Amino acid sequence: MAEFFKRLRCMVGKHSPSRRSVRYEGHLKIGPCKYCGRQLEKGGDGRWVTRHLTSSAGKPKVIEED
Ligand SMILES: [Zn+2]
Question: Which of 10, 52, 62, 66, by CA, is between 20 and 30 Å from 38?
């Protein structure tokens, strides 16, 4: 049951990184969430947020140049 509530936290965006897996990528501290496995990064305000690998996830943006 406890696991369920931890997962619920993930669903509302309150992830907890697996400290053992936390590493640095440049100036960013990153690591996977120990509950849902999503990649997280530590923001400037100290909160862990899911990584945004692309600016428009799931919807590739076509940029036209002329
Ligand atoms: Zn999570």
Answer: 62
